[in-house]
Amino acid sequence: MIHAAGLTQRVTSGADTLAILHELSLDIAAGESVAILGKSGSGKSTLLGLLAGLDTPNEGELALFGEPLGALDEDNRAALRAGRVGFVFQNFQLLPTLTAQENVALPLELAPGGNRRVAARQWLSRVGLGERTAHLPKQLSGGEQQRVALARAFVTDPELVLADEPTGNLDPETGAAVIELLFSLNREAGTTLVLVTHDNALARRCSRCLRLENGRLSAFDPDTREATP
Amino acid sequence: MTPALRLALTSLKRDLRAPDVRALFVALVLAVAAATMIAFFLDRLEGGLERQAGQLLGGDLVLEQPEPFDDSLVERLQDAGLAVSRQVEMSSMLQRDERFQLASLKAVDSSWPLYGSSRVAGGDTTQSLERPPEAGRVWADPRLKSLLGLGIGDTLRVGEAELQVSGFIQREANPSGGFGSFNPRLMLNAADLAATGLVQPGSRIDYSLLGAGAPEALDSLAPLLDRLRENGVQVRDVRNDRPRLGSALNRAESYLGIAGLAAVLLAGVAVAMASRRYVERHLDTAALLRCFGASQRQLTLIFAGQLAGLALVASLLGALAGLVGQALLVWLLADFLPLTLPAPGPAPLFLGVLTALAVLVGFAGPALLRIKRVSALKVLRRELDPLPPSAWLVTAAAATVFGGLLWLYSASFSLAVTLLLGGMLALGVLWVCARLLLSGVLALAGRLSGRSEMSRALRLGGRQLARRRQAGLGQLLAFAITFFAMAMMVLVRGDLLSTWQARLPDNTPNYFAINIQPGEREAFADAIDSDVESQSALYPMVRGRINRINGQPPQETLPPDARGDDALRRTLNLTWRAEVPDGNRVVAGEWFADAAADHSASADNAPGGWLEAVDTGPARTPVPISLQDGLAERLHLTLGDTLTFRIGSESLTARITSLRSLDWDSFTPNFYVIFPPGILNDFAHSYITAFYLPEGNPALVNRLIERFPGVSLLNVDALLGQVRDVLSQVTRAVELILVLVLLAGVSVLYAALTASQPARAHESGLLRVFGAGNRLISRMQGAEFALLGGASGLLGAALAELATALLSGYWLDLPVRFHGWVWLVLPPGGALLIGAIGHALSRGLRRQAPAASLTLVEEV
Fold it and tell me: Given an 8 Å threshold on Cβ–Cβ distance, is B3 in contact with A109?
């Protein structure tokens, strides 16, 4: 599903160059659920962006669905994502002028055909918001908004779902409920899940945990909190 | 429909709630409404004027020659689709009992009039008639009542025929002849012409053929008309012979055109500001769509499609508003409109839609490019905004589109390029000025040390502005341009109206007295002196024809297009004068004032010094003359060319030493040719003058007619009234358009303030978190707006003064003036207006809880 080798990403600030990711390698198989743990600023989101093809690495190879991303321009990378990658964000990223149903239908709108409205309504029902289809994001609570975002991530029946701190903006109780929903949807759909978080409890639920530190990835056991390079 | 387009349209529907989309929409509607309203109105006015010209001329096409027209020609015109009427004019003596009077006879056939109607008073009733007098009957000029003691039913001898008076003419359907026919009019049916026996070989008779029909029919006759012209037939058509209301209306048309452009420019500025906010608001959406797999092309399609959809709806609505607006304009002016306007055509509609799209592309296009360039990574890292488009790109795009519109509207490429380059230069200078001004204002506000709440608010407001200096600069420019455009339209309107009023003051001469004999001159002047309120000079008049140009017959030396000129065919009124007449301006060469003494001296010594027989070759020392510039242009004459005049049986050669411009609409005697004093004195001459006689003084008129029976008095009240009506109707049109420009200006203010709303909301939220009270925040924001408004008012005033001077001088041909009040009113007015609107718009924000204000930036 995802193959990365020797990934290096640097940022330049004035005369200083900082390597956020340093010769990092990673393979994720279909159906796996992988958590990437790390502190704030460790480069988790940068890695996620690279894996999704939202950005290109300074060095290294990266392939998504078997396609080397280095050979694709931005439009082709976008085309590769279309319908096959779902996203869940820390700050939900719902469009404020769109209703819940319209937000869910958004990824479907980019492709021709299909009954977008019905699909969106079905997915909203599956996340327990069947009665709130016409509500605008500002009329929903944080947990409800993230549930809408979950419905939107799964509505295209993606092969891969990338989640960036999905509970970061939620209180623990609501966060737990959202995570419960995320994993159950993931199980039912048999989707590959890559989850970026700093929450050990959340990481524990994934089939594999990795920790990002000093630009390098290492295997990590959230129970023992031990990393094995 | 592609998914991208579908998405564009569905999201547009949802997006209509956003203030920036509303501002964008309103600005576009206004731009289109202004453009189409003006285009519709001018289109119809043009059509109406052409039709009116047709009425004054008597047809769309008028052919004149001194002999009857062949029937074959009449058939040719009819075959081309024209309705044709024949008309015969001549001077003849009328007799009733023992009294005689020279009259200007006009015989018309049964098709007359082709346009309009005559008002004829018969006994107790006055009728509007669209037919000629019946056979055996005549209609007479009311002046003949007193001159011949004539009444309805009386019999009049015309040549050898006895004809009965059935009416007095109050208004002739096509009063042809104009000032040439000073004698009272008598209209008769063409069927009676033969019986009068007046048509004899050698009699001076003008034959006219009037034709009415579609422009295409006239176009198809062009080759025939050219041939007729070459054969000496005078050809006039509505398109080259518009009524003399010309210059005032042309200026009004120019004004409306400029006003329309000002509205479009303002709307463009509003669109630019609103679209900037629109793009900023949609960067997240774009990044998200990019995440979901949208290509750059799809993104462009979605957002450009959305805006195009908006523009389409806005332009339809705007065009509808324009259509209603012009109908309102016509309805408002109906009482004043001496003409019925034709129905509006479809062309302005296209112009409107084109304008909306052009404004959108030019003013919103560069901002849209930003959306296309958005990185999908922005969904993870918010700070990753694409760079704003370069100022050069924004300016170049807007300038190109605006230049194109200028070209389209003014139909003059050179004018468009000049205005555009000037505008760009001005913008550059403006940018620098705005920066300096802003720095100055901020420094001043920062230095305020007072402890009063006012100075505290000003200090804080100044600091706020300083923090957002770049955005503030943009707003300052937008407001300055807005104030400039609004002020300029007010200024030009004022100049336009006062110039019109100055041109036709209340005491504009309404009577012309013609044919005053030299012996009567002083007596006549004395007779009117005590009763008239204003009087033009008494001009001597000598009748002469141009029969040689540079020693050659005109037909041989002039290019074909000038050979049939009216001035060559008819007898001209020549005058002499030592000074340049009022309202005339020497535009080339030198006036002969200094030389006048010499000429008159030598003329006294040798009155025939310049006189010569027609065939004795060029004069030794040709007399200097001053020629009207328009005639010089038509006849391709310049300084130094000579003209030989046939005056009576003698010839006189003169050299053009100066060219004059003059205003034909001035209601004073005007002359093509002016000689220095002393040359023409010995030729037979009479005098002409114009004076203003307050209405309701018929006694004086009657006294003048009795005492100076040979003098013709011509009342031009009707014509004067017509010109005044046109001016007042155009004034109203100008005012209505001004309102539209002002509305467009307000739309800019709205768009600009809406665009800066979220940032302000965030600030005021933060300040309140830190403990600032509502009162202080409100004052601070008010102060910020007021500082912005005051500075832009100052800049706008400078710009308006400069631009008005340029426009008046170069385009509208008005005198350049200084307008002190603009400098006094605009800066405080700007401060008040922006302060008030901004304050009102932010009131809602101030009412929100700080938490809501702080999240607003994230959400909206």
Answer: yes
Indicate whether B676 and B545 sit together in one domain.
yes
Which of B6, B376, B860 is nearest residue A78 as measured by Cβ atoms? B376
Count structural domains, chain B: 3
Distance CA B174, CA B165 (A): 20
CB contact under 8 A, A106 and B288: yes
Position B852 pLDDT exceeds 80: no
- If asked whether residues B228 and B97 sit together in one domain, one would say yes
Considering the domain boundaries, does residue A174 fall inside one? yes
Cis geometry, peptide bond prior to residue B113 (ω within 30 degrees of 0): yes
B596 sits in which H/E element: helix B593-605
Q: What is the pLDDT of residues B315-367, one digit of tens each?
A: 888 888 888 888 877 776 665 555 567 777 787 788 878 888 888 888 888 88
Domain of A95, in residue numbers: 32-49+78-228
Q: Which of A93-107, B153-167, B263-277 has the highest mean pLDDT?
A: B153-167
Strand pairing category for B137-140 and B585-589: unpaired
Number of domains in chain A: 1
Considering the domain architecture, whether residues B183 and B272 belong to the same structural domain is answered as: no
Sole residue written with tokens 């990824």: A107
Residue A45 has its nearest CB partner, among B284, B295, B381, at: B381
CATH number at residue A222: 3.40.50.300
Q: What is the pLDDT of residues B415-471, one digit of tens each?
A: 778 777 877 777 788 888 888 888 888 888 777 777 777 777 788 788 877 777 777
Report yes or no: A82 and A52 within 8 Å, Cβ to Cβ.
Answer: no
List, for residues B53-76, the tens digit of each pLDDT value.
Answer: 666 677 888 898 878 899 999 999
ipTM of the complex, rounded to two decimals = 0.87
B278, B417: one domain: yes
Q: Are residues B233 and B253 in the same domain?
A: no
- For tokens 């005491």, the residue is B507
Q: Which residues form the domain of B613? A: 534-692
Q: How distant is the Cα of B285 from the closest Cα of chain A, in angstroms?
A: 7
